[in-house]
Design goal:
heterodimer, A: alpha+beta, Arc Repressor Mutant, subunit A, Immunoglobulin-like, eight-stranded antiparallel sheet, 8 strands, rod-shaped, B: mainly alpha, Rna Polymerase Sigma Factor, Chain: A, 3 domains, 11 helices, 69% helix, 0% strand, globular
Chain lengths: 282, 228
């Protein structure tokens, strides 16, 4: 018996998978020599063994199995087709190499959100500017109102000072021929009001300054408020915090001084009026 | 534009085909290519036709896959069910086998043998692997599994038989064997037992079992050769 005959007897069992390990190893070593007879015979033995499948009892798988298989295969085929279409499109437009992992509607949603965010930012900034303007206008209105109230308070105070019988009325006469006298009223608690009409304005930026002349010998004049008549030559000067003791003041005087006033008179008084108390008078 | 009565009559089969296809409720139903495919001659039920269908799988041709499943699904299921004896497990294995065919059709090489034995060998190995997972023989059997694809050749005497006639003939030939001889072959093929294991199972001498199997397979071969 030749080697081929010896191993040829094992080929059907080998194809069947029935050989035990020692015989199987020996046969495989022989097959590794590429024996043409055994190789051909083994190929036919494999076919013969495969025919045993027909001896299995007939049985049919459920229709669900076919449905599952076709569904899986259909989905995989569709994915493959989509990938191929995209790869073709990619080769046609090589600059666009990104993968469309995000659906287009999502890009549209992101773009819409971006537009909304930009608009909201712009609108918020616009509203903030408007609020700032409104606040500025409100502050200006408030300041204006405070100023008006302050002016109104001053006017009321001036009116009270002028109307109150307790106020000391003082006429400030002038030595200049073309100048008109000034009128003053001094209320011990509310202050001094000095007013003038059709008074020629001082030259340049110069102002009129009120002075309180003390009775005490050698005492220096006490500087008070400054004022500049308007274009019609009118002015009202209110001194809210004059010295409490009216009796210590001998007279009121008004001089021309540089802008802002002076601590000491720099010119001769243009208007002077003596303070004459009622009690003294009586 | 004038449409003659004759042209309408010639188009009648197509209209019938279209209307017949509508109730299927298929999405993407394109009647013209389906109609033309129905008119084209079907491939013969032979190895060449199988090889053609497998080549079409490489092009992701679902119709080729459907044809292969419809042609061999029952046979493969019958074999796997015979081995694992559980319908659910058998369906899982058959699904794996056909999905492997779909995904790895390139592994089949027509030059190394016909398609069906390759498919049946793959299904049998999968089913036996499933059995081995449950048995103590698993470790020993793992290195015995043949690597696919193995060369397989159809003998020259092979005649074209349809599946039913072939199954009938194989069963007839196996039934003609001695019962013990038939049992030994079945233990080897459907349960994956070796000579020694079969001898232990049947309580017969090892040499006797070897002879039964070899002679039984030779008789099967002769029987198929004698089939006209």
């Amino acid at each position: 018996m030749s080697t081929s005959d010896q191993f040829g007897e094992l080929l059907e069992a080998y194809a069947l998978g029935a050989l035990d390990a020692p015989e199987r190893s020996a046969l495989e070593a022989h097959l590794a020599t590429n024996c043409p007879e055994c190789t051909t015979a083994l190929a036919e033995a494999r076919w013969l063994v495969s025919q045993l499948a027909y001896s299995a009892p007939e049985a049919a798988p459920s229709a669900l199995l076919r449905g599952r298989l076709m569904k899986i295969v259909g989905e995989e085929a569709a994915r493959k087709e989509a990938t191929q279409k995209y790869s073709i499109r990619s080769t046609q437009t090589p600059l666009r190499t990104f993968k469309p992992t995000v659906p287009y509607w999502m890009w549209a949603a992101v773009a819409a959100l971006l537009v909304v965010a930009l608009y909201s930012t712009w609108d918020a900034r616009r509203l903030s500017d408007e609020m700032r303007d409104i606040n500025a206008r409100a502050m200006a209105e408030l300041n204006s109102r405070e100023k008006i109230e302050e002016e109104l308070g001053a006017v009321r105070r001036e009116a009270v000072i002028l109307a109150d019988p307790a106020s000391v009325k003082i006429a400030l006469a002038t030595g200049e021929a073309n100048a008109r006298p000034l009128q003053a009223a001094w209320h011990a608690q509310l202050g001094i009001v000095v007013s003038g009409q059709k008074i020629p304005p001082p030259p340049g930026q110069r102002v009129l300054q009120l002075w309180l002349i003390p009775k005490a010998a050698g005492a220096k004049p006490v500087p008070s408020q400054v004022v500049r008549p308007d274009e019609n030559g009118n002015f009202v000067l209110l001194v809210s915090n004059p010295p409490e003791l009216t009796a210590d003041t001998k007279a009121l005087a008004v001089t021309e001084e540089p802008a802002g006033g002076s601590p000491q008179p720099t010119t001769t008084p243009k208007w002077v009026g003596g303070v004459v108390l009622s009690d003294t008078k009586d | 534009m004038h449409i003659s009565r004759g042209s309408l009559i010639h188009c009648l089969p197509y209209f019938v085909f279209v209307v017949a296809g509508l109730p299927r409720g298929r999405r993407n139903y394109h009647p013209i290519p389906v109609f033309l495919a129905a008119l084209s001659p079907k491939p013969d039920d032979g190895d060449a036709a199988d090889a053609t269908l497998v080549r079409q799988l490489l092009q992701r041709d679902m119709r080729a896959f459907e044809q292969l499943y419809d042609r061999y699904g029952r046979l493969v299921y019958g074999l796997v069910f015979r081995i694992v004896q559980q319908a659910g497990t058998a369906e899982e294995i058959v699904q794996d086998v056909f999905l492997q065919l779909w995904r790895n059709a390139a592994r089949y090489d027509a030059l190394r043998g016909p398609f069906l034995p390759w498919l049946l060998t793959m299904a049998r190995n999968r089913a036996l692997d499933n059995l081995r997972l449950k048995s103590e023989r698993q470790r020993r059997r793992e290195d015995q599994t043949e690597e696919l694809p193995s060369i397989c050749a159809v003998p020259q005497f092979e005649k074209e038989l349809d599946q039913k006639r072939r199954a009938s003939r194989i069963r007839e030939l196996l039934t003609s064997l001695q019962p013990q001889q038939k049992r030994a072959i079945e233990l080897a093929y459907f349960e994956g037992l070796t000579h020694t294991e079969i001898a232990d199972t049947l309580q017969e001498p090892l040499g006797t079992v070897k002879s039964w199997i070899r002679n039984g397979l030779l008789r099967l071969r002769e029987g198929l050769q004698a089939t006209t």
